[in-house]
What does this fold into?
Amino acid sequence: MVEADELPEYPLGAEDRLDSHYFMAWERRRWLNSDMRLKGTPECRALYFDLINIAYDQTPVGTVPQDLETLAKLLMVDPGHFRALCKLDYGPLHKWTPCICEGGEVRLMHPMVLRTLTEALSRKEDNRAKHEAANAAKRLQRLRITVAGYHAELAKNDAAIRWMDEWLVQEGCEYRNASWIERAMRSWSTHMFDLGQARNGSLR
It folds into this structure.
């Protein structure tokens, strides 16, 4: 038995999800040459692989309950038989180790599963950032074109376009109609006037 305070803290929380992923990365060559595959029984290998798939739908993602009866139910096998298999050197829980999750719950984690998930979540975050950047660029371009219809010189001012875009976002504008664009332009003018007044005051 290991004291809970001595267990590693699982780095992923309930908010870390891969719900849109219907597949998982599997390092084929690493698996083919692993001790688990070479030394485990066919039944243990099958349950081991099944458990990894189950972990992807658990919370936190990548972990499984440590209770053997619960695991046996998830794997749809007899609890007594499952306990016996887990006593083998290369049983279904090979390299699954206890960890502390959010809320202090003790669950089982696997280093390979965690590494694969961490890489997948990192790619997800990168894709989200790229998507948001692309959307922001399109939004700025649309705003620039609209402002040009009112004031061609102002539309060439990158700082003004970015400031008005941020103002519209902060104001909760969902549809940028003429009224909102005109308000944004007036707010920009007021902002620049106030900025000029502040600068003049500091020079006195």
Q: What stands out?
A: The CA atoms of residues 30 and 37 lie 10 Å apart. Residues 133-203 form one domain. The mean pLDDT is 88.
